[in-house]
Amino acid sequence: AYLSPILLLFPVSLSLCNLVHNVALHQKASQSSENSQLGVAGHAVDGKRDASFQRGSCTHTEEESDPWWRVDLENEYTITAVMVTNRDEHENMLDGAEIWIGNSIETNNIKNRCAVISHIPKGRTIYLYCSPAKGRYVTVLLRGSKKILSLCEVEVFVSNYGEATQSSTLRGAAASKAIDGRRNSYYSDWFCSHTAEGETDPWWRLDLRQTFVIVSIKVTNRGDCCAERLDGAEIRVGNSLQNNGYDNPRCATISHIRAGKTSTYQCDGGSMEGRFVNVVIPGKSKTLTLCEVEVYTVPAGKSLPSCL
């Protein structure tokens, strides 16, 4: 499954070619109880999707009422997706588990439910989309008596590195739909952003919150109709909001993206620095629809990874 809305290449201990940014990795985890040293809470954020409890890769609580597991992300993020890996045995143990996001460590005071796990086949990993919710803590809660909570990996993906806005919004097709981490290209399924129809110079903008070197940008076009609407759209990168970001230098021009397809654009000269990434269609009576925008970056002042 395709995962991350904004793919950031940070010079950390992970390979620079690993484009998925999992903010739960190696963070502090806790749980309601521990069955043994083999089942400690930290095993679910060790970066291994090994589904074997016996090899020390999974968590395990005692049998109890409403067992829970929680990871502290240390900062508040806007969370868009969670991935959960189930054990290679006892596959029904996670059925009905709830994933909650919030800033409280009290299980009765968590504000946003991301998803409910209906079922994960044994040893498998599933992707759970969250309606973007802010929080520092991600909690997995299994309600009921005589329950055991066992997790082999929990990965948390965020759009905290960017906030999307656009010139106008048509029927709930918010700008954030273009950074929700999925390349589903059907506007009718509510996966795409959409401005009002017939605007002059409609625009969409991503605020990365700080200046980055923009290595490349991937754009996914609408697949159910109207692929030609993106023809001639300009990608602009810079630090200015003047003229809604249109005064920033032009990174690239989209000549044409076939319906439902994704195209990659590298800025003129190889890379550009900026906090804001704009997509704008110059002209009158224009409509801007984007089904996904992915921005590959490295921090300003850092060299580009060779794997690109």
From TrEMBL:
Domain Fucolectin tachylectin-4 pentraxin-1, residue spans: 20-160, 162-305
Pfam family for this entry, one: F5_F8_type_C_2
Annotated SUPFAM superfamilies: Galactose-binding domain-like (SSF49785)
Signal peptide (UniProt feature, chain positions): 1-17
Domain of life: Eukaryota
Keywords of the record: Calcium, Disulfide bond, Lectin, Metal-binding, Signal
SMART domains recorded: FTP
Keyword Repeat: no
Molecular function in Gene Ontology: fucose binding; metal ion binding
UniProt key word Iron: no
GO biological process: regulation of cellular defense response; regulation of complement activation, lectin pathway
Family named by the database record: Belongs to the fucolectin family.
Protein purpose: Acts as a defensive agent. Recognizes blood group fucosylated oligosaccharides including A, B, H and Lewis B-type antigens. Does not recognize Lewis A antigen and has low affinity for monovalent haptens.
Record note on quaternary structure: Homotrimer.
PANTHER family: F5_8 TYPE C DOMAIN-CONTAINING PROTEIN, FTP DOMAIN-CONTAINING PROTEIN
Record's protein name: Uncharacterized LOC110966165
